[in-house]
């Protein structure tokens, strides 16, 4: 009997099952509950979070930096964006948010797959970083400063760098390149749209119709036909108001 008890105690003293261990205190056997190890909880948390999620969140957060500028330019009824000529294929304003949210999410998934591939990917990630930085510059230039030509140049550079990114991503992880295909289509469309806006709102001496509407014109040597048309319209409104009174 004593030998059996000793054997059971010896086994239970080293046995760990589901976070429990056992020790002998005289003739009684006590169960000791172990607190989950911090590293174990961290590992479990990491396992519960998809590996691509942090990358997508970071890309979305970066993209949101230009959101206030875009909203200010497109939402207000009196904004310059609604008072300048736009191409017939300009999308409605509500399209921008869901499209860019989806695209930034796909960017994060694509980059995460490249990083997790484990193959040499330094050049691919560096090129993507340059491309993403250019992407974040576009909204402040187009919607914030009304620099349509400069924004068009950024779009062209975006297409050029994206071509290099797609090539390198495909060599590392083909699916990551396919995930960026919708972004390539949208970027191509946005470049054509930007070009059409430039054509409808020509910039002369640094001024265009958008800057007139936004009150950002530099009068004097920069006076141009668009500004003349604006002044003429204001005079007509003032004359009509005077006649009515």
Short description:
With 245 residues, the chain is mainly alpha-helical. The chain has helices at residues 2-14, 38-48, 53-63, 67-74, 96-116, 122-144, 148-172, 174-179, 181-200, 209-214, 225-244; strands at residues 16-17, 20-25, 28-33.
Write a structural description.
This protein is mostly helical. The protein has 3 domains: 2-34, no CATH class; 50-201, Ferritin (Up-down Bundle); 207-245, no CATH class. 67% of the residues lie in helices and 6% in strands. It has helices at residues 2-14, 38-48, 53-63, 67-74, 96-116, 122-144, 148-172, 174-179, 181-200, 209-214, 225-244; strands at residues 16-17, 20-25, 28-33. The chain has a 3-stranded antiparallel β-sheet with strand order 1-2-3. Strand 1 and strand 2 (20-25) form a beta hairpin. Helix 4 (67-74) runs parallel beside helix 6 (122-144). The longest helix is centred in the middle third of the chain and has 25 residues, at 148-172. The N and C termini lie far apart (117 Å).
